[in-house]
Amino acid sequence: MKADYSLYLVTDSTKAILGDRDLVAVVKAAVEGGVTIVQLRDKTRETAELIRIAKELHSITSAHQVPLLINDRVDVALAAGAEGVHIGQDDIDIASARKILGPDAIIGVTTSTEDEAIIAAKAGADYLGIGTVYATQTKENTKTVIGTSGVRNILSSLGSINENVKTVCIGGIKPSNAQRVLYQTATASKELDGVAIVSAIIGAPDPKQAAAHLKELISHPPPFAASASPQILSTRDILDRVPAIVKSLGEAKPLCHNMTNLVVQNFAANVALAIGASPIMSNNGDEAADLAALNGALVINMGTTTADIRANHLKALSAYNIAGGPVILDPVGCGATQARREGVRALMAGGYFDVIKGNEGEIKTIAGPALVKGQQTQQRGVDSGTSTLSGTEKATLVRALAAREHNVVLMTGSTDYLSDGARTVAIRNGHAILGAVTGTGCTLGTTIAAFVAVHREDKLLAALTGILMYEIAAERAAERDDVRGPGTFVPAFLDELFAIRGEAARGADAWVKGAK
Ligand code: 3NM
Ligand code: MG
């Protein structure tokens, strides 16, 4: 049977979610709000009662041409005349269910690994419920929390076999993440057909309005989605366009919102001013929504991390994601301690980052074993740890991570690698003295944020512009006769950033000839 899986409602009759309300009334409201398919899921009720509820639900769903499926129970589906079943890995097998329900029934299967998904697809499942995406109180005994990257891996395996199976994902999906999950899980060959939701509809104060809101959200790409397929740029094209982007930053003076660590507050504000941005240093998540409305960008720097700070980061991330304002992640030392590893996982799960910028160790931590394959190194402090990757491997890693996250990834080092998943650039500018001053990595994050704020149409080119301006300014400063070491370097560096900004404002582009 042909079905629309885009907004898939799974019911729950527990006190914690349904409360004292009547399930049939709640489902009716949700269907009126735009839910496209319904699954009756109730693990406790007696068979007769379950059949009675299923029949009541079916009279509502069929009036709206919405299919009704029954969780686990082929017998109940048959008795109530429902359109199909949803079965778990420990339930009846697909072939038996098909034999009982017939060729037109909809049969869905819960899958959380690539193997389970391929087996179910080949066995003739109509759709797969892929999860658990995010930990959820609705189903606490889930096998594994797989995140958007786990969903993406499953879709990618399914894309490589020739089965026309539909897919939805489930677990912790709500208005604040539905668009992002659909966007970030899409692969070249397969994307989700919908999202499956329990508590964000059944537990909502107004289920009809909640369903309508979700339906509206999932019918559009998220505000931060890259507009078109990226333009292929030659080195010449890039260098021709960079000075105008520096100039546009000075003219637009974008707000550059820094949530950063204790060490670099002042330096980051000065760098932002020198390049022509308008800095605000605010670690207060409660004012992020107001700031996100000002059309700037946010940089989240993990250099100082506590549970409180993380909660503020998550609030701000969500506010900028909703407003469509770019967010840059600087995952300082994210592999160094258990707290930081958990912190970066929570941030990656909590929202979308337009750019992730880190050193080799940090990027490897975020990429995780699936992309790094046994090359994970223990980080000491916030420095990168021993490098284990060749230049080609670094380029391959940033490209794979950017493709997985649908964003831009920068790995800094003596050569920087920058990719948006389609285009990958190596940049050999900069100067060793940057390593002798605290906060030079962090303030590069600030710089990139400001450029992404003014050049959202091509975030890779925006980030590259920031890197070139920053690293060429560092070279110019380090070469000056009045610079004798890190102390004299910092003011000279700010001056050179300021000077390049002035040159770009006058339309000069000689400075960019130093790009390597
Ligand atoms: N199945 P909520 S997670 C019913 O991972 C169910 O297979 C899951 O509830 C799986 O939308 C889940 O409230 C509960 O997070 C999803
Ligand atoms: Mg089951």
Classification by helices and strands: alpha/beta
- Low-pLDDT parts are 375-380
Number of strands: 16
Strand order of the largest sheet: 1-2-3-4-5-6-7-8
Keywords:
alpha/beta, TIM Barrel, UDP-N-acetylmuramoyl-L-alanine:D-glutamate ligase, 8-stranded mixed sheet, 20 helices, 13% strand, binds ligand 3NM, binds magnesium ion
What does the secondary structure layout of this molecule look like, with pairings?
Elements (H helix, E strand, L loop, with lengths): L6 E4 L12 H11 L3 E4 L6 H17 L4 E4 L2 H7 L3 E4 L6 H8 L4 E6 L2 H9 L4 E4 L16 H13 L6 E5 L7 H8 L8 E4 L1 H4 L4 H12 L16 H18 L2 E5 L5 H11 L2 E4 L6 H5 L4 E5 L5 H17 L3 E4 L7 H13 L4 E4 L1 H8 L1 H4 L18 H15 L2 E4 L4 E4 L4 E4 L12 H15 L4 H20 L7 H20 L11
Parallel strand pairs: 1-2, 1-8, 2-3, 3-4, 4-5, 5-6, 6-7, 7-8, 9-10, 9-11, 11-12, 12-13, 13-14
Antiparallel strand pairs: 14-15, 15-16
Helix pairs in contact: 1-2, 1-9, 2-3, 5-6, 10-19, 10-20, 11-18, 11-20, 13-14, 15-17, 18-19, 19-20
Bound molecules: ligand 3NM and magnesium ion.
Care to describe what's here?
Helix 18 (440-454) packs across helix 19. The chain has helices at residues 23-33, 47-63, 74-80, 94-101, 114-122, 147-159, 178-185, 199-202, 207-218, 235-252, 265-275, 288-292, 307-323, 338-350, 360-367, 369-372, 391-405, 440-454, 459-478, 486-505; strands at 7-10, 37-40, 68-71, 84-87, 106-111, 127-130, 166-170, 194-197, 255-259, 278-281, 297-301, 327-330, 355-358, 408-411, 416-419, 424-427. It contains 20 helices and 16 strands. An eight-stranded parallel beta barrel has the order 1-2-3-4-5-6-7-8, surrounded by seven helices. The chain folds into two domains: 7-218, Alpha-Beta Barrel (TIM Barrel); 240-514, Ribokinase (UDP-N-acetylmuramoyl-L-alanine:D-glutamate ligase, 3-Layer(aba) Sandwich), CATH 3.40.1190. Helix 4 (94-101) links the parallel strand 4 (84-87) and strand 5 (106-111). It is α/β, with parallel strands linked by helices. The protein starts with 6 loop residues before the first strand and ends in an 11-residue tail after the last helix. The chain binds ligand 3NM and magnesium ion. Magnesium ion (MG) is lined by residues 71-72, 87-88, 91.
